Amino acid sequence: MGKTHSDPVLNLEVNGVSRRVQVAADEPLALVLRNRLGLTGVKVGCGLEQCGSCAVLVDGESTLTCMRPAADFEGRRIETVEGLGTPAAPGPVQQALIDERAAQCGYCTPGIVVAVTALLRKDPHPDESAIRAALTPHLCRCGAHPGVLRAARALAGAARR
Description:
With 161 residues, this protein is an alpha+beta fold. It has 2 domains: 75 residues, Ubiquitin-like (UB roll); 72 residues, [2Fe-2S]-binding domain (DNA polymerase, domain 1, Orthogonal Bundle). The protein is built from 5 helices and 5 strands; from the N terminus they run ββαβββαααα. It has a 5-stranded mixed beta sheet, covered by helices on one side. 39% of the residues are buried.
């Protein structure tokens, strides 16, 4: 996937900023975000859209991006985990995960933050089944899912301790 002069130049709106980027015709959005725009919170785990680490918000929906060409996202509003908070000022989902000590290695965490953010924006008080459904595409090999569920429940106002 090397760039050539005939490769398209895309206009992508990422974290509220319009960005022009030349990409290979079939280059996946996850790789464009990481390698061309320096947004390394987007991870490529399986490369098959089966682990959830490549999730970003696209027009408010949690979307897997490691296989779909970046060109599919031109004209859409993209938010990465970097747009949802910073280490100095974590967003609400990030803070809840910190409070619950719900991350171990952290590789899956950005995708989980994206998924829970999308869920809570759509439904601020989801029930347990909605929380679990939102997290279904996200694999955590470290076993942090109990903490993630506690954090999501707390944000949903449904914490059961």
